[in-house]
Hints:
mainly alpha; 12 helices; 73% helix; 0% strand
Amino acid sequence: MSILTAIFQAIGQALTWILPVSESGHSAIFHNFSGRFTNACSQLTGVVHIGIAIGIIIAFYKLFISLFKNFFGTINDAVHKRLDLKNITSAREFMYMTILSFAFFVIYLIPTGKYGNLFSVFHRASYNETLLGEGICFALTGALLITAFEVVNKTSLKLPPFVKAIILGIIAFLAVPTAGCSPVGAIVAVGILLGMSDKYSLRYAMVISVPVLTVTGIIEICTAVTPVSVVAAIITVILSAGVSFFAVKLAINFIIKKKMVLPFAIYDIALGLICFVIGIVQTVAK
């Protein structure tokens, strides 16, 4: 595994995960045109995912410190029988919601015989020798982003927090293994449509991303068919963490503060249409 490959992959994966343009979709396009139609991956992919998680934690270190404090504070309150679920702080409510959303990912651990687990089954479907599905998902992501940012501050759904957590958990559960869908973009957009602020939705997406990236990264490293050298791994972790940190700041400054989501949405829709046309040709040619 060359150092140059590690550098390009670290930059590409970090940018496409944090920004709402689908890391899995771009990976599927690369695999499609390179003729690799399996879900087998390199250890480098797992290393990059762990690096992205580290970059997100650094970018939101205060938020993660608060989450850990509230998590262990909840355990302490429960042990001493003073846990109050009716009067909770906003920080503790946020922690409860993210845990509830992430709980859906346990379903992916259900064994499915020779295919490993349920996640592998979903992930394998992304490499079906056509870009038809990816095209549809890219376009839907772009349309969802436009819809969400057009109606922001014009709607406010009065749903209980745990209901919003369940909805966002299901969205993340479906988006993570589906090539062409951006988990971050989907969570942010749906969060806004549920009445959350764009800043709150982005933080929510980042918190959900960290355990997803960490767990999938470890699994990919352990099950990969292509090893990565120690030097390449070190460079990859540092670079992917740095790029993801930069991408987070970019998302905050342009997507959240300046509401410049349209370029990303247009990119998703345009790429989706291209992939859709290519997918139709590939389907007919089969």
